[in-house]
Queue: 2 jobs
Job 1
Amino acid sequence: MIDHDDDALKLDPGFADRFEHQSRPPCQLYLISPPAIDLGFTDRLARALDAGPVAAFQLRLKGLDDHSIAKLAEPVQRLCADRGVAFIVNDSVGLAKRLGADGVHLGQDDGDPRDARAMLGPDAQIGVTCHDSRHLAMEAGEAGADYVAFGAFYPTTTKEVQHHPEPSILGWWTTLFEVPCVAIGGITPANAGPLIEAGADFIAVCGSVWNAPEGERAAVEAFARTLNL
Ligand SMILES: Cc1ncc(COP(=O)(O)OP(=O)(O)O)c(N)n1
Ligand SMILES: Cc1nc(C(=O)O)sc1CCOP(=O)(O)O
Ligand SMILES: [Mg+2]
């Protein structure tokens, strides 16, 4: 059965405690890195993380081997740790283990969450891509995922996507299961509302922060206003 572990709701330690009277904490921001970064990226990340509450940061660098990602990861991971932001590695359980990351995000072809759990231990946050599929989400929950991710809700230029769920999948999930759900794909401060209202526990965003004409600081501030944080 799906794990109803209370820790599953605590990506940001201490956050949930402020909302003990509610059955689920309010929706939080989950920031995804640009697909490529250089060493100067930490300045941008610091501006983003200092602009408003960010629960988690995912290092998602495509087209690089684990060794190259590890070299770029070190200052980024330190920055997240200094600010109490969960540091999640995309795709690679081995890299997450090597870096001592807080967790790993697995796509449907990135490995079995059970193997990830065995390698990373009980405290690791393991997230699983579930596209627009209730079936995949229940499978991920059964396999011990700490969150399930649905998307892409809106058009995105960050990734080629084939699946476009309706916001109602978020409400369906949160009504039935305690495991948090993440909404992803083309989310901006202006279009996040229906996903938050439908029940997203997290909104995961990339382009609307890193490609924002007004800069990452203003973009995170705008998300904080949308989320009422
Ligand atoms: C929070 C979150 N949700 C979905 C994804 C997509 O993962 P995946 O399908 O493995 O695609 P890539 O990101 O690896 O291109 C994600 N990374 N994070
Ligand atoms: C990484 C990713 N996964 C998706 C999915 O649907 O599973 S959509 C996506 C891209 C997210 O970036 P942006 O906020 O710029 O759209
Ligand atoms: Mg992947």
Job 2
Amino acid sequence: MPCRSWATPSSLPTTPRGSSAAHCKLSRKSNPQTRRGIPSHRPSHRFGLNRRRFGSVPFRLSVGLDSIFFIPYGEPIQAMFKNARDLSMKPIIVVAMRDQFGMPPADVAIYERDGSGGSAKPLDGWEHMDPAHRIFHSQHRDLHAMLNGASLEGMTARFMANYTARLRATAAVGDEWTELPDLFALLRTDMFHAACTSMVGERFFELNPDFCRDFWEFDGHVLTYLRRPPRWMAPRAFAVRTRLLESIKKWRQYAGRQFDAADPALAAAEYEPVWGARLMRVRADVFAKAGASPDGCASMDLGLLWAANANVIPATLWTLLGVLLSPDLAARVRAEMADCLDTDTDSFRVSALCSKPLLNGIHLESLRFCTAATSARNPVIDDFRICGWRIPRDALMLSISWFGAHDARFWNTGRTLPDGTPEHPVDAYWAERFLEYPDDPASGPVRKPAAASRRPAAKRTPAHDKTAKAISHTAALGGYFYPYGGGTRICPGRHLAKQEMLGAVAVMLREFEIELLDPAAAAKAGPDLSVFPTGALGPDRKLAVRMRRRRKEEAR
Ligand code: HEM
């Protein structure tokens, strides 16, 4: 893929497709009260993004009357993630709930009144808060518990079964080649239905058949909501959000009527078709005890459905595209997939897929390549310091994962070509970037000495891939790679995300033959920077394909 240069997003920051958000209108005004030794960069009306600006030193951005402290990658972001107890995500969650997910003021107040922190032990001075009102802690506890272990296994198994069933039933692709204008649209429909059904149950789409279409229209308006225009200036954006919230309310009312909470078998079930995953029932109970209204509960559920789908589906697109662009990679990926197929059940063992070196590597490279997620925190102590820099209490600290993930000084960029350019620049997708091969000292994600990059590239085979190791641990990449954020507030859905990404790619490649109609144009596709930095970014163009079903014997 060719080298891509920076676009210029019109404002910063926005929200990660997790929970955090910030409504910021960049302005030339600065607030002298917040000048405490942090260098200040005044943004111009459009925010020119380049690495020099996002160097290794924290700096302050003036945003209206407030300031944002930009925390760069490397040591500073690691320090931010380590100091969880002195930092809060409350202000940013309040903004996300209010501005993006349309939560009514009375429900936003439930978040605002909780200063007890996310940990089991309340922060000093908050020991006597009613546990039912500790909304941050309850959510954190339930998400981490129920997106792990047996609950996670169940969620992934349902996703795989739903996704496979949808692809097998789709009328869009038959036995003969069919041209489809947009591969991403296909993933956005089928993955979304499969993942949501596994989370909110089979009845959800029966009640709300247009939810998927509305969801992606809503996703396209995220930056609009965060700019907080009056409703009359963005009628379509607000109308679609209202439709989504009404759909969720309809489902919640239905589930409340249909579900027999007194039935012990149902209460213990990890999944049933009305509420879906137990996580949704547990959350409903927590919200009710905290005093949330039906409208407030709908906003919280919209937040979760958005976090659970808006990143993982674009990230999957890049994994699949990487495979489709390279016949050699496709053959090696299929070799790994073949090892993970359980012939008795005719389904993939997702845990096996997730432990294969090459599959692991392409999942990591997809996240590196496309993710511009923000991690935001506010100090809850007076004298918070990061690498010697002092950040005032309650000030917004913000970091964007893209910059470290695209620092050419850090990442391995492969061989140096005769014209002096790197073979695999950081703004191109390189399936092997994260892989360390024991017989190749030039391999591995981190930049190698110049001599190593002059060695000829080795031709990889499935046998080589078996010996490789995908490197993503903090000791190697710490501070340069944090698509899921970090510390105790790291994305609770990261395991599910990886399983869905690799599971979806495996099922797609098994069920269908897929060919890009214009591989040269597809190779030029890059992340859509017009929505920077809202998380994992989808492609900046449509990717037309032709597809047909694999014959049974080929699928194996
Ligand atoms: C490629 C996929 C994904 C990416 C890149 C991603 C990224 C993130 C990031 C950066 C954060 C903020 C972490 C921080 O501030 O340090 C976050 C939070 C969150 N993510 Fe994900 N995420 C992904 C998939 C998922 C999935 C599948 C779920 C499923 C439920 C999920 C649920 C959440 C939730 C609920 C939060 C908020 C947690 C809190 O408030 O503490 N995410 N995610």
